[in-house]
Design goal:
The chain is mainly α. It folds into 2 domains: 1-17 and 31-127, Farnesyl Diphosphate Synthase; 146-315, Farnesyl Diphosphate Synthase. Helix content is 70%, strand content 2%. It is built from 17 helices and 2 strands. A two-stranded antiparallel ribbon has the order 1-2. α10 packs antiparallel against α14. The longest helix has 23 residues, at 262-284. The protein is globular, with a radius of gyration of 20 Å. The N and C termini lie far apart (55 Å).
Amino acid sequence: MTCESEIAARGASFHINGKAFAPGGAPVPASGCSLADASDYCRRLAAAHYENFTVASWLLPSELRPHFCHVYAYCRWADDLADETGSPEQSLALLDAWERELDRCYAGEVEHPVFVALRQTIVEFDIPRQPLADLLAAFRQDQTTTRYDSAEQLLDYCRRSANPVGRLVLYLARAHDAQTRSLADSICTGLQWINFCQDVAGDWDRGRIYLPASTWREVGCDESVFERRLAAPEFREGLRREVARAEGFLEAGWPLVDLAPRAVRLSIALFLLGGLAAVAAVRSVDYNVWTGRPRVSAARKLALLVKAWRRSSIA
């Protein structure tokens, strides 16, 4: 049975090597379940997998929380279908099947619980298909592309892997226009870029280098430095440049805090400050990300929450 027909038959899970698949093995409601059951599943999935969900949900108006969960569940499933199968070919097939379910959702034909819930959000907030489909395109790209030669190539990847998330938030906030979209894109690109800087070691272990090869060439750092996991001067210089680039994207997004509806200003400010704290964390280890992923401490996160509240309250 094909992936697509399995979804149509069960409405709840894919099969990989004969076993039902769902993120984290969480129980999934049956095909064609009620909206209430589907929405509750999305909420539980978000709470179980998104470490900042409790804080994030507290920052949002209660009427928006279920819809953020619906969108998150869609992204979580897609992400796990891309990364948890152990086979690029299997992942590509499953992502294609997930996109067919997305098409059925926009046609009003929903069975899978995630799409039962997501359909309500799409209709209520008039969300176009493109940002949801762009995310799947990025997940597919991860199956086939392990290097990026230029910043422009990586920006194009971020356009589909990171920026759609910010655009979806704008639709949920009913604040999507050309100006807010551009600012949200800058923030999301910056957040992903600094994650690339933090995750150099982990990405290398997975066979990937996201940061542009052109930067490494400019500073005289080749892959032998990565193979030796060496924080050589040329490696530190290359990473310094990319951290600065990420910081520039983030700083350019600050006007969105003033332009966004008050209901989401605190969340946006917190994400911005969190990204800038990650910039500071990489700098604090003098760009040696081989000995451990630079992280923002719990105490620092609490301080950021207070700072974000002050910043968004002033806006």
